[in-house]
Amino acid sequence: GFGYTGTSPVGGGHFTLTGAGVLCFQQHKGTNNRAARKGMEYIDRHAQISYKGGPCNLYEHYYVSQAAINHGGKSWLDYNDKFRDTLLSGQHGDGHFRSPPNPGPGNKNDPVYHTALATLMLEVYYRFLPGTGFGL
Q: Less CB within 10 Å around the terminal CB: N or C of the chain?
């Protein structure tokens, strides 16, 4: 996985920047890049998102959603099943997303911040189609 510094993961015992790292490698080296593939394998094994009980680090998952759709296949299908319904469970009738429990290191309990990230994640289907030429 990819983290901020060092070899010790933060954010619930896993590397929270893995999605960002994978996305960078995918866009600059392609989805077949070894680091991108290994990062997706890490995401496949460790990605967790729960709006009800946590962990729910939307900053982490904003990047994971883009990396997963770029990678495509089973990784995308499995991740999409994990995040879509749980994310929508955090949305209020007026459209905003409540602050989730255990939102990850450095996150503020700001509904505007969480609404922005959740909206960007849900736009992955049409705003962030695979930028690598691969995917779905």
A: C
Supply φ then ψ for residue 74, to 5 degrees. -60, -35
Q: Is 46 helix (H, G, I), strand (E, B) or coil?
A: helix
Per 3-state DSSP, the chain is made up of helix, strand and coil in percentages (nearest 5) of: 50, 5, 45
Q: How far apart are CA 124 and CA 108, in angstroms?
A: 23
Terminal CA-CA length for the chain: 23
Q: Is 114 buried (19+), middle (13-18) or exposed (0-12) by CB count in 10 A?
A: buried
SS3 state of residue 14: strand
Integer Cα distance of 127 and 77 in angstroms: 18
Q: How do residues 24-82 score in pLDDT, each as one tens digit?
A: 999 898 888 999 999 999 999 988 888 888 888 888 899 999 999 999 999 999 999 99
- Cα(65)–Cα(80) distance, rounded to whole angstroms? 8
* Residue where the block lists tokens 């994990």: 82
Quick check: 116 and 74 in contact, CB under 8 A? no
Indicate whether this model's pTM tops 0.90: no
- In whole angstroms, give the CA distance from residue 12 to residue 1: 13
